[in-house]
């Protein structure tokens, strides 16, 4: 049963004063409030620019909580950053305490950022996710608050729609896990120490799939922007996670600080740009490729590199223009066309400070930076005390042991055991692809974000013939993803099959993974093997004459098993598996259950 009230009024000194005088709770009771209004005049882009960069949020919103909301409003009236806000909503409930209000405040900030109708003005000094008495019961009432606000036009989408969106999943307004919190705090402390000493630095954040490396990258950039843009008269509350960084000294160190984020994958890069468009302090121009950085005339104070394992070494690039650019950038930066140089070297040469977020086990092409280079980078960061590890599994509800399990069953271990107890996680092996596709459709109807994905074991025929089919197995005919950017949210995604290049870095609720004939099982040697003739990613198997490298089947096996590891770790709630090669299917049937978990 919910007892909350939502009072709406104009955000003017006269109306707020009259309203506050009528109820003692507005000067002595924990409440949550929303301030909103048209986008501030300094932030309003021209109509032509809105069309160009896709700015959709036409209103600003600020969410707060206070034990004395009347006094807090007087502070907001004095803030130039909020002088353009025109509306106030106050949420009050006789049963709410301070902990509940902090939690509701965090919930609304996250949902508003994910909905995208408003530009959230809150600083990123630490979303609260603390436990407290009867939290589950109180959180049920949050959904009622959400529904009331949605009916009032504050939200434009349902909770499931918001939670399945890229804006929500990639938003900087996150409640961090304990190891993410430690990582962010350690990275910032190290960065400010190095800035104070005027010394260059390289930091590494390492973690398995699903540990939230991208979340940490975006969170750090927003936090740095908020520290830089903060004012001494508007300090965060002492109980926020990172309040100690909002000091005059830290602000001074960040003045004129040029920052960028490098994202190698095209689709993920586009999604992050969309988030940056709607986040004060961030800008889509901050999101770059390694080529953008290398060719820039400017030097960067800080570059954050997400999915750093996907940076390139010298190899045949997708176009002749990029091959030429690779040579030119290397020559400009190092005085000669040194073919041993990689994009990793470019980043270090172009910035005083770097933060690399990586997992060498997610390298999927021979052109990626070699694993040994990444290991050397990690070792240097560890020796300089500029290293953080992420372990908590944020994506897969099967727990942290699931990633190791997937790597073991694909890694030619001498002995592998039946899947451990993954609780309610729905891991299943299918004999019939049509049945698996139908199950994925049903899960999409229930939860959204259920998609079919596959290894690159079928030719991309529809690239030139839109009436053809790419993947034909028995009586099932399917096409590869029809778009390279934001495929997961595209209208036809449920009817298509995504490749590694459209899903790496993303979450799904359910993933239907087709393991193609590029992976097979050799019963004589009891090993999983790579079948070159069934692998159609040309950049994924071509040799490297520039460096004199020829790749054997065993060399390529590592990349292909990495691809399937990534695909098999996309599903939050479950992973369904179909295996094309009958011996491999029989081999994996020993370690993957063919029935659904008990419900």
UniProtKB/TrEMBL annotation:
The segment(s) forming the Helicase ATP-binding domain are: 172-377
| Short name of any one Pfam family annotated for the protein | SLFN-g3_helicase
Q: What is this protein called?
A: Helicase ATP-binding domain-containing protein
Q: Which residues form a coiled coil?
A: none
Species source reads Plantibacter elymi (nom. nud.)
- Going by the entry's taxonomy, the superkingdom of the source organism is recorded as Bacteria
Taxonomy of origin reads: Bacteria, Bacillati, Actinomycetota, Actinomycetes, Micrococcales
CDD domains in the record, alphabetically?
Answer: GIY-YIG_COG3410
SMART domains the UniProt entry points to? DEXDc
């Amino acid at each position: 049963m919910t007892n909350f009230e939502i009072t709406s009024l104009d955000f003017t000194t006269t109306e707020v004063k009259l309203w506050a005088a009528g109820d003692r709770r507005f000067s002595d009771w924990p409440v949550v409030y929303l301030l909103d209004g048209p986008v501030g005049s300094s932030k309003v882009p021209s109509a032509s620019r809105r069309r160009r960069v896709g700015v959709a949020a036409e209103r600003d919103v600020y969410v707060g909580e206070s034990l004395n909301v009347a006094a807090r409003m007087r502070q907001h009236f004095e803030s130039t950053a909020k002088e353009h806000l025109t509306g106030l909503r106050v949420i009050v409930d006789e049963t709410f305490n301070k902990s509940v209000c902090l939690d509701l405040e965090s919930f609304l900030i996250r949902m508003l950022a994910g909905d995208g109708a408003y530009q959230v003005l809150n600083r990123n000094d630490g979303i609260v996710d603390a436990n407290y008495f009867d939290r589950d019961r109180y959180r049920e009432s949050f959904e009622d608050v959400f529904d009331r606000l949605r009916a009032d036009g504050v939200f434009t989408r349902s909770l499931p729609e918001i939670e399945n969106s890229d804006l929500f999943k990639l938003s900087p307004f996150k409640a961090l896990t304990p190891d993410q919190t430690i990582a962010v705090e350690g990275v910032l402390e190290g960065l400010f120490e190095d800035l104070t000493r005027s010394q260059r630095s390289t930091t590494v954040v390492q973690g398995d799939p699903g540990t939230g490396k991208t979340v940490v990258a975006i969170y750090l950039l927003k936090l740095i922007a908020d520290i830089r843009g903060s004012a001494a008269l508007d300090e965060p509350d002492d109980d926020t996670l990172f309040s100690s960084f909002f000091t005059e000294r830290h602000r001074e160190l960040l003045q004129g600080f040029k920052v960028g984020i490098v994202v190698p994958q095209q689709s993920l890069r586009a999604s992050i740009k969309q988030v940056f468009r709607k986040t004060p302090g961030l800008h889509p121009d901050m999101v770059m490729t390694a080529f953008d950085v290398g060719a820039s005339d400017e030097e960067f104070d800080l570059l954050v590199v997400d999915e750093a394992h996907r940076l390139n070494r010298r190899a045949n690039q997708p176009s002749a223009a990029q091959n030429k650019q690779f040579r030119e950038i290397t020559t400009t930066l190092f005085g000669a066309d040194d073919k041993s140089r990689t994009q990793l070297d470019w980043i270090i040469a172009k910035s005083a400070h770097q933060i690399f977020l990586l997992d060498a086990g997610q390298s999927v092409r021979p052109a990626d930076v070699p694993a040994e280079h990444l290991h050397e980078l990690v070792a240097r960061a560890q020796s300089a005390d500029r290293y953080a590890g992420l372990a908590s599994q944020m994506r897969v509800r099967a727990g942290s042991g699931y990633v190791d399990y997937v790597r073991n069953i694909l890694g030619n271990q001498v002995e592998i055991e039946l899947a451990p107890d993954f609780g309610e996680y729905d891991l299943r092996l299918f004999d019939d692809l049509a049945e698996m596709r139908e199950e994925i459709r049903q899960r999409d109807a229930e939860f959204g974000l259920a998609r079919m994905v596959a290894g690159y074991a079928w030719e991309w025929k529809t690239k030139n013939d839109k009436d053809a089919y790419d993947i034909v197995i028995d009586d099932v005919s399917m096409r590869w993803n029809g778009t390279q950017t934001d495929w997961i949210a595209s209208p036809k995604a449920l009817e298509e099959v995504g490749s590694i290049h459209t899903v790496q870095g993303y979450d799904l609720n359910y993933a239907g993974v087709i393991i193609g004939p590029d992976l097979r099982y050799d019963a004589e040697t009891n090993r999983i093997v790579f079948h070159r003739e069934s692998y159609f990613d040309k950049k994924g198997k071509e040799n490297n004459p520039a460096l004199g490298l020829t790749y054997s089947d065993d060399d390529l096996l590592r990349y292909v098993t990495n691809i399937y590891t990534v695909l098999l770790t996309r599903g939050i709630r479950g992973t369904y598996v179909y295996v094309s090669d009958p011996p491999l299917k029989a081999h994996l049937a020993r370690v993957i259950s063919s029935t659904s978990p008990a419900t």
